[in-house]
Specification:
645 residues; alpha/beta; GMP Synthetase, Chain A, domain 3; seven-stranded mixed β-sheet; binds ligand 6R9
Length: 645
């Protein structure tokens, strides 16, 4: 592992909100007296009724309860839109860059206010009230942000489903939170190719009985779509019918803002619930300090709003701060592999936040497509989603940032609502591959297999000892699962599911998941989800899925499949199974390798020994460990002899 160190550049120490001395002072205060610290920083958003209580949290595994600012009231859209009208009504809130480079537009805070208010009135007209859930299945178009903020405005809880998910996955999520309204587009556009969103949503809705009463459809491409009279309505027609005046609904700090489904190590995806007050305070504060966002900066996060990064760092954090946030519909290599940098130059982007998988794929195309662009406006780079390997970090720093832009490697999760471990560009020296130090109020600890807290330089599992305002509050409809998943492994602590190393400087190096969650191009995938899709195929009797190192994706999906008696494990079947999983879950879940296996390595009690399957997938036959407890040790020889990939 690289231990190269990049000191904080002098100009950053001077310009940044937080330098090292300030970081140390504020961090010490944030953990020694969280009440006082957050009482002060909770004021960064506007409250309708100010809070008098700050922190009321318990990590007791049988009684987890997390409340922040619990007697305060506010509204998220009030903070992201209305409060900027007086000071920056004509400032651009959202720069939208379409898939096609000729297609872009700018939306000011005034325009955003009108769009959000109108659509909020549409939701009301369709019977959406405070506490109702709304499912959003949209491409990266401004309407996605309008829809999120309109839900917040009327007190509805949105659940965004990534546009790459299949009808089945969408159906499960609509059912999970019983949305009577679904918002989609006729088609999405990515890399010049059309994505049949409306057709997918129609298929999903058909699977959910009579839950969905209204489907609101944005006309994006004008492509032909099926229409269900009485249920389907056009966004542009409905917004034209209503007034542009819609006062924000007063919400309690602890009222839910959104649900976002995410993969865990077992079972179906969980509905992670985030609430109004604490989430917004945390998203806004991290956005300002981690990206050192100053008025007038142009900020671009390349995530999709279907993931938590899009929620916190395209929409809520930046807009709460009155920022100009860029939203990009397309992909990094269309129409050319220079697209990211062309967009940076076109809009004068100062702060650029992307994922290691994108960096690695661009790296593969060499330096020339980057170097032929100017990028002179870039000041700061960010990384999120998976560990960034030092080679990719160095390339990002040297080629993209021309050795002048610090990189903030931000570690966090859907569950954490905002960034927990990260450098601050004016305060933290950088080590390629390390997420460095905790943000204010965050108390990471490293524990050993028995749950003992390890001090000093060490390696182990990462837990967080106490709550922070952006933390998820519960699993939608299943508080028991919330307690069980996150607080029972190391009772009294939040278990992240990640392993990490802490070095002599107290810097954290995230080493990846230690549970059965794999991270494919920064997208979380439960191996159990892929397995259940595979065994749903009539030819499959058993399947076991593991992750393995993949040069571009970080991790690839390796599936071991046992076929039913009498079925031939042919090349056609292999292809069919890959297509099947794509259809069942979505393209991001496509197995990279399918290996037919007459038997899986199991203990005598019938438990699949994934440790062995992982080693074989990783090509590490020499270190299989003890296989003597297997019911039939000879299956291992067959697995090795027929290794795929
Ligand atoms: C924000 C987001 C969370 C998992 C997390 C970890 C991995 C995210 C990382 C990182 C190393 C970073 N992860 N950022 N690992 N360094 N900077 O990605 O949320 O989709 O819920 O994934 O991603 O394994 O546990 P989510």
């Amino acid at each position: 592992m690289s231990e190269k160190v990049y000191p904080v550049p002098a100009e950053w120490e001077n310009r940044a909100f937080i330098n090292d001395a300030k970081y140390k002072e504020l961090y010490a205060k944030s953990v020694s007296d969280p009440e006082a610290f957050w009482a002060e920083h909770g004021k960064r958003i506007d409250w309708i009724k100010p809070f008098t209580k700050v922190k009321h949290t318990s990590f007791d595994p049988h009684n987890v309860s997390i409340k922040w600012f619990e007697d305060g009231t506010t509204n998220v859209s009030l903070n992201c839109v209305d409060r900027h009208l007086a000071t920056r009504g004509d400032q651009v809130a959202i720069i939208w860059e379409g898939d096609n480079p000729d297609d872009s537009k700018k939306i000011t805070y005034k325009q955003l206010h009108e769009e959000v208010s109108r659509f909020a009135n549409v939701l009301k007209a369709k019977g959406v009230a405070k506490g109702d859930t709304v499912t959003i299945y949209l491409p990266m178009i401004p309407e996605a942000a309008y829809a999120m903020l309109a839900c917040a405005r009327v007190g509805a809880v949105h659940s965004i489903v990534f546009g790459g998910f299949s009808p089945d996955s969408l159906a499960g999520r609509i059912e999970g939170c019983k949305s009577k309204v679904v918002i989609t587009a006729d088609e999405g556009l990515r890399g010049g190719r059309k994505v049949p969103l409306k057709a997918n949503a129609d298929a999903a809705i058909a699977k959910t009985g009579d839950i969905v009463k209204t489907q609101i459809v944005v006309k994006r491409t004008g492509g032909k779509v099926a229409w269900s009279e009485g249920r389907d309505v056009w966004w542009h027609e409905e917004t034209a019918k209503v007034s542009a005046d819609c006062p924000p609904t007063e919400m309690n700090a602890e009222d839910p803002l959104f649900i976002l489904y995410t993969s865990g190590s077992t079972g179906a995806p969980k509905g992670v619930v985030h609430c109004t007050g604490g989430y917004l305070v945390y998203a806004a504060m991290t956005h300002q300090y981690v990206f050192d966002y100053h008025d007038g900066d142009i900020y671009w996060c390349t995530a999709d709003v279907g993931w938590v990064t899009g929620h916190s760092y395209i929409v809520y954090g930046p807009l709460a701060n009155g920022a100009t946030t860029l939203m990009f519909e397309g992909i990094p290599n269309y129409p050319s592999i220079s697209r990211f940098w062309d967009v940076v130059d076109k809009h004068g982007v100062n702060i650029f936040y992307t994922a290691p998988t994108a960096i690695r794929s661009l790296m593969g195309a060499g330096e020339e497509p980057v170097k032929k662009t100017s990028r002179k406006t870039l000041r700061l780079l960010g990384s999120v989603g998976e560990p960034i390997n030092p080679e990719a970090w160095e390339w990002y720093h040297r080629v993209v940032g021309e050795d002048r832009c610090p990189i903030v490697d931000t570690w966090w999760q859907t569950e954490t609502g905002g960034i927990l471990i990260t450098p601050l560009p004016g305060a933290t020296k950088l080590k390629p591959g390390s997420a460095t130090r905790p943000f204010f109020g965050v108390q990471p600890q490293v524990v050993d297999a028995n749950g003992g807290v390890i001090e000093g330089p060490c390696e182990g599992n990462l837990v967080i000892a106490d709550s922070w305002p952006g933390q998820m509050r519960t699993v939608y409809g299943d508080h028991e699962r919330f307690q069980q998943t996150y607080f029972s492994t190391y009772p009294g602590k939040y278990f992240t599911g990640d392993g990490c190393r802490r070095d002599a400087d107290g810097f954290y190096w995230i080493t990846g998941r230690v549970d059965d969650v794999i991270n494919v191009s920064g997208h979380r995938m439960g191996t159990a989800e892929v397995e259940s899709a595979l065994v749903a195929h009539p030819a499959v009797s058993e399947a076991a899925v593991v992750g393995y190192p993949h040069d571009l994706k970080g991790q690839g999906i390796y599936a071991y499949v046992t076929v039913m008696e009498g079925i031939e494990p042919t090349e056609e079947l292999r292809k069919e199974l890959v297509a099947w999983v794509r259809k069942e879950i979505g393209p991001i879940a496509s197995p990279d390798v399918v290996q037919f296996a007459p038997g899986l390595p199991k203990t005598r009690s019938g438990k699949i020994m994934r440790r062995i399957l992982r080693k074989i997938a990783e090509n590490e036959f020499g270190s299989l460990g003890d296989t003597s407890t297997l019911a039939d040790p000879t299956v291992v020889d067959d697995l090795i002899a027929n290794r795929g990939g």
